[in-house]
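Handoff note, outgoing to incoming analyst
You'll be picking up this chain. Sequence as last confirmed:
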Amino acid sequence: MTHRTIPCGPGNPVRVVVVGAGAMGQNWLTAVTDEPETELVGIADLDLDLARRSAAGLGRPDLPVGSDAVALAADTDAQALVNVTVPAAHHPITAAALFAGLPVLGEKPVADTLGRALSLAAASEVTGELFMVSQSRRWNHQLFALRGMLEELGAIGTLTTEFFTSPHFGGFREEMAYPLLIDMAIHTFDAARFLLGAEPVSAYCQAYNPPWSWFSGDAAASAVFEMEGGARYVYNGSWCSAGAETSWNGAWRASGEKGSALWDGDNEPVLVAGVRPAERARSPYEGVGGALRVFVESLRTGSTPMGEVHENTMSLAMVEAAVLSARTGQRVLLDDVLDQARAAALHEENRSDVRAALAGWPSIRGALASRPQAPPAAAPA
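Most recent structure output, in case you need it:
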């Protein structure tokens, strides 16, 4: 997937509008303000008072604000959009921006449904604009180190994640049908794809809600994914598990032909194998700020970043496959999930050019198999 580049760099920052001034939006406003290669030129939010307060909080009370992100971008000569809205708004705002000639960096998930995610992948092809999803937990130095250890272990048989926490969010998460799977598990599913360098083939999942849970929906789940090459990825998690809580990154174990690798999610991973680990370069980036920097580098160089919409969509496909399996009690094939999503996308999509792009994919899995270029290497730790 190629995309339009923008002349930018030190002394010539990318002009950015941030859409969404809520809690996560505040993190992005800080990141865009702190990054020397981006310039915040506007804040869009349906709550204009919130947008004005956010601008004042940055020490820029005269910063332009508006309720229409694309219109605000036009008024401020913005060159890119950072979309930090709720998932239901991801598709309409991102699609409008792409067709207005604006590359987009969006929060996860790609969209609120897999079908709309596929439509956005097609829209990026039609427009030639970059759409990158910030899967911020992938930009973790220790995760990169763990991936290097897996490369030492030969063939991988099993990769597992345990995720046990007990947050009291209040609000919409506590009313969702599958809060853990839909709102959180995408982070670990995405990391599993990254670690294994493989895509999912099938999913079997059971979701449930312990009797003491303060969530309305199923706040716990166990899932097994068959991955390309035969490895199994096993996820076991709960959002209502007090005591001995794991890291928010989860606790990981990889079992391979030459030994195992362990990561507690917070500290350096450990290789337990009869091999000497090679020194490997790690990501020079971290978190939200790292995703923003990679986005800018991709706009400047034309490189395909991790998180580009085609590459990232399979992480959302894992979520939808797990939810479908939990609902039906059946093992689910990812190709069936992708086919159903394309059918939904073709039914919903209003633009004939996007429908034509979607219909023209000989294989959905093949269309999504965009392989991102590796980030510039940092020195080995």
